Amino acid sequence: MSQPLRVVIIDDHPLFREGVVHILKSDPGIEVVGEGESAEDALCALRQYQPDILLLDLDMPGGGLAVVARAAEVAPATKVVVLTASSDEEHAIAAFRAGVRGYILKGVSSRELVAILRSIHAGKGYVPPSLGALLISGLASPAPRPAAPTPLVDLTPREQQILLQIAAGLSNKEIGTAFNLTEKTVKYYVSNILLKLQVRNRVEAALLVQKLQAAGQL
Description:
Elements: E1 5-10, H1 14-25, E2 30-36, H2 39-49, E3 53-56, H3 64-74, E4 79-84, H4 89-98, E5 102-105, H5 110-121, H6 132-140, H7 157-167, H8 172-179, H9 183-197, H10 202-214
Parallel strand pairs: 1-2, 1-3, 3-4, 4-5
Helix pairs in contact: 2-3, 4-6, 7-9, 7-10, 8-9
């Protein structure tokens, strides 16, 4: 008899997480070995359980991409799979570049979710049909890089736009209004920006922008 597929689930919405746990536990070939709600929980679970699959949301305390970036060193054999409500192609491209093996939208049925996880465990990847062409195009093209390396080199164009708004003192709500984004999406962008710039807060990010502007690099 084959070993069960061992899964860790990380999502900061308890009701949704409990639903996914129930779905996966209903399958006799899947064992949910751990769960949590933050990046810290995810890394702890990776170290403790070394699961076959880590299923996580991107928008959670500590940032999902931060987990993806460290997963390979913490649990090299674990395949990281995103389960998210965001159909933004920039989010998906960033996730795949960070090393995820699948990007699943939360609208999938329970049967589809199980089938996708089994497929990924078998060595395949997964991209939602609605994002397939966009992802192929985005991943085939190298991320834009400025001629001279700066701390902003890893930011997407949208993240650079939002960084300038942060430096101007705008709140998440004001930034969302300016770019027609929800506050939750802006919060996701801000977390990624702080992580990529290796700064602790919005004030340090704003100071970095001022420094680059003074040096003529922005």
